[in-house]
Amino acid sequence: MNSTQHILILGTGAAGAAAARSLAGREDLRVTLVGETGVTPYTRMLIKGIAFGVTPPDMIKIPLPEVDLVSDTVVEVDTGSQEVQLASGRRLNYDAVIVATGSIARPLPANITGGSAFFETGRVSALHSIEDALHIRDLLAGLGRPARVAIYGGGIIAAESASSLREAGHSVMLINRSAIPGVGAFGAPVAERLAVEHSSRVLTRFGRTIQHIDVSDGGVAITLDNDSSVTADLLLLALGTAAAAPAPWTDGIEVDDRLRAKTAHVYAAGGVATHHDDALGTWRIDHWDDASAQGAHAAQVALHELGLADDPGAYLPRSPYMAMVYGQMITGVGYLGDADTHVEDGEEFVVRHEQAGTVIGVTGIDAVGTVYQWGQRLHGVRA
């Protein structure tokens, strides 16, 4: 056994921190965790409390395990020489590398006119980082009055933001290209109920897309595809995420059912990973608990392939997630994908998502306990 084998973990978010925790304290291994230069690791799922509440940034820091920590942004992974190039010029070698560099906010479509300068005004923003959250908080506070906020999107960030902003007394308009927003995030049965809630509580423009944006000191003028216009103080972009991978990858990293990339000794976990397996096909999940589970699993696979642990088997998503929307707790476990949906009988609203008769995910409204009980039963229970 080689006691000097070295695992590099790139990224200090959910997946990277979980991988490091899984490996910390081993005497037969050297572990190095690499984060972005000058960035304090934080829990991204909690930044809404900064943007729309009173949560201070220090409260959402991630406690990291006792491993070697390098604060130096990754530039490139040289898979041939098994080295990682850092922004400072430093190079780190590895016996195995776990890429957990997460995601970025998906940008506006290129066909929206108005020029990229509207981002510089601060009136158009995503909610993906602490910097985004602090900017939104300061902008809303600086108005000195209830804000007019247009939200473009329909998933978890869009739904929770609409709910939080409305509760705080702001005027909200939710814009989404689909007539039923959030199907990909919540599944059709839950999304249909949420669409009714949205329509009764905030202004909505469903089945519409943004075509043009004009920004001035007075706000954002938004032109929709039916030539109607919307004026807001802030346009909040909630269009989902895209993988943020270092070179040589560009659109994320493809992994197999054990989170292994196509190149030997490379693994990927969390928002940067696109999965290909026989059970679920091609899929990607970018939420906190699943990223943590992927990071821990990738670490065990890497250990196994270094000869230091047993094979943990294939990774299948079972992690829970939740969103509080208009006072209702939306919960889910597993993966929804392109699955058949079946609403269960009973007082609680619970939906099974099935693929070829096997339950791969469960969602519900105000049914936390029932939904979470499905976690370990997924992927092996025939309906």
UniProtKB/TrEMBL annotation:
SUPFAM superfamilies: FAD/NAD(P)-binding domain. It comes from Gulosibacter chungangensis. Its cofactor is FAD. Residues 6-295 form the FAD/NAD(P)-binding domain. Pfam families: Pyr_redox_2. Keywords: FAD, Flavoprotein. PANTHER family: NITRITE REDUCTASE [NAD(P)H], PYRIDINE NUCLEOTIDE-DISULFIDE OXIDOREDUCTASE DOMAIN-CONTAINING. InterPro entries: FAD-bd_OxRdtase, FAD/NAD-bd_sf, FAD/NAD-binding_dom. GO terms for molecular function: oxidoreductase activity. This is Ferredoxin reductase.
